[in-house]
């Protein structure tokens, strides 16, 4: 990491170039513009410990640089150690899209990622916090060598003390106790097959699957052909044929409309007619052979299937018990739920006590030995002890606590010093509201024969 002044002679605040690079696996070229040129670029419904959650940190830094200096971010990435992709880009705030100004490649010999931002800053005021952040980051990542070149030409280097990385976390499904209504809504859109767009490409696929080639057939001839080949048709084609059965349109007419809504509750199909420039609704016959195909597509999974497939540690027996507890029918289709029912479902998921405890495999704690070695290197104390507690859960989210305490030796501070970390990120602010500090301050240390301002360090990592 380095920070360099654009014009060293100018007084603060002034423009600086902040650069961060690593020798990690890099980011694939196709993901770089989205990862650094959009807000909230991330994964869907999985839980996995990470240093961040939504991709906001880097994007906000890039945005701040763009707002204060109007200069693009520079991103360089290599995933194979042979070719490096280099991007210069801005972020279109209104459209939440990257604006790529320049993209080129060059040959390299190492993998890794590099990001450079030009921004307004005041290092004379912020420098101490930045140095603290780098120092504390090296404490909680003893497997990494970290260097920092500051604007004054001073080089800080923290060499790794272990050569093994902690095991990587795994992605797991969410726990029912950690779900809210909005998350349920987003999950629902993923539980049922989406109605395909009936455009020229889809119509060509339907023709191909039916073996029609260039033949021009009437609506009746098309439906007869579909019934004969029904078992061999792909699901998207089946859905299109089901829609056609209610619209009673051939391919030419079908290409001039777009489906707006399929309302199973009221047995209505609504489409927009481009020729008439209006929405048209038609009734669907629930006794039709094709009605079930559309109903299952729109309504999604049953409640019990939704619970067992979309959440962790929920089996069929538990799903049935929950349905009885929440007063839902097990076969109730998720896609048919009203807003009130979704709220009722969410409340039930959060209050049902028979769900198993959350799976902690999505976590990647540092480990007792690495934390101990990191503290030994930094503090060289007379006494040192580290403990890692077993996994616990809060509101459906698993967590692991690691604590270290060091006393005496070369600890320079006089008085207790607490270092706080979350997911291996130093927590430099809001110290007064942290429960860890409150516990430390409320502890009667005289019972441990510690009085006055002792050379004592406590490390907390969640």
TrEMBL record:
UniProt domain DNA topoisomerase VI subunit B transducer: residue ranges: 358-462
GO MF annotations in UniProt: DNA binding; DNA topoisomerase type II (double strand cut, ATP-hydrolyzing) activity
Pfam families for the chain: Topo-VIb_trans
Any one biological process term the GO annotation gives: DNA topological change
Coiled coil segments of this chain: none
UniProt-recorded name of the protein: DNA topoisomerase VI subunit B transducer domain-containing protein
Lineage, uppermost ranks: unclassified sequences, metagenomes, ecological metagenomes
């Amino acid at each position: 990491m380095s920070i360099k002044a654009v014009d060293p002679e100018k007084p603060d605040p002034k423009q600086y170039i902040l650069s961060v690079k690593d020798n990690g696996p890099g980011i694939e070229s196709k993901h770089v513009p989205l990862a650094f040129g959009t807000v909230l670029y991330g994964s869907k419904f999985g839980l996995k410990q990470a240093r961040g959650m939504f991709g906001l940190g880097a994007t906000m830094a890039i945005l701040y640089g763009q707002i204060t200096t109007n200069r693009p971010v520079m991103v360089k990435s290599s995933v194979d150690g042979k070719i490096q992709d280099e991007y210069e880009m801005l972020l279109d705030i209104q459209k939440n899209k990257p604006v790529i100004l320049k993209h080129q490649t060059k040959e390299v010999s190492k993998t890794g990622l590099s990001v450079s931002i030009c921004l307004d800053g005041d290092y004379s005021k912020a420098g101490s916090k930045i140095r603290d952040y780098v120092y504390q980051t090296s404490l909680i990542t003893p497997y990494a060598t970290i260097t920092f070149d500051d604007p004054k030409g001073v080089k800080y280097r923290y060499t790794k003390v272990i050569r093994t990385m902690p095991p990587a976390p795994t992605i797991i499904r969410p726990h029912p106790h950690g779900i809210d209504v909005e998350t349920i809504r987003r999950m629902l859109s993923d539980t049922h097959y989406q109605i395909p767009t009936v455009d020229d490409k889809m119509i060509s696929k339907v023709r191909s699957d039916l073996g029609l080639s260039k033949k021009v057939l009437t609506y009746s001839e098309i439906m007869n052909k579909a019934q004969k080949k029904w078992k061999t048709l792909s699901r998207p084609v089946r859905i299109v044929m089901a829609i056609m059965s209610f619209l009673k349109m051939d391919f030419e007419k079908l290409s001039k409309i777009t489906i707006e809504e399929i309302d199973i509750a009221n047995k209505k199909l609504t489409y927009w007619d481009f020729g008439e420039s209006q929405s048209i609704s038609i009734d669907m016959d629930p006794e039709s052979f094709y009605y079930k195909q559309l109903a299952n597509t729109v309504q999604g999974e049953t409640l019990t299937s939704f619970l067992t497939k979309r959440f962790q540690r929920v089996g069929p027996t538990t799903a049935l018990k929950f349905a009885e507890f929440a007063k839902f029918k097990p076969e109730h289709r998720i896609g048919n739920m009203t807003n009130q029912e979704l709220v009722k479902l969410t409340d039930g998921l959060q209050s049902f006590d028979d769900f198993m405890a959350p799976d902690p495999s999505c976590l990647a704690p540092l480990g007792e030995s690495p934390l101990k070695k990191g503290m030994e290197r930094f503090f060289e104390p007379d006494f040192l002890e580290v403990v890692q507690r077993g996994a616990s859960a809060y509101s459906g989210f698993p967590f692991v606590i690691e604590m270290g305490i060091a006393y005496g030796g070369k600890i320079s501070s006089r008085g207790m010093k607490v270092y706080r970390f979350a997911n291996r990120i130093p927590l430099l602010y809001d110290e007064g509201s942290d429960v860890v500090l409150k516990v430390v301050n409320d502890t009667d240390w005289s019972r441990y024969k510690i009085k006055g301002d002792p050379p004592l360090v406590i490390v907390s990592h969640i």
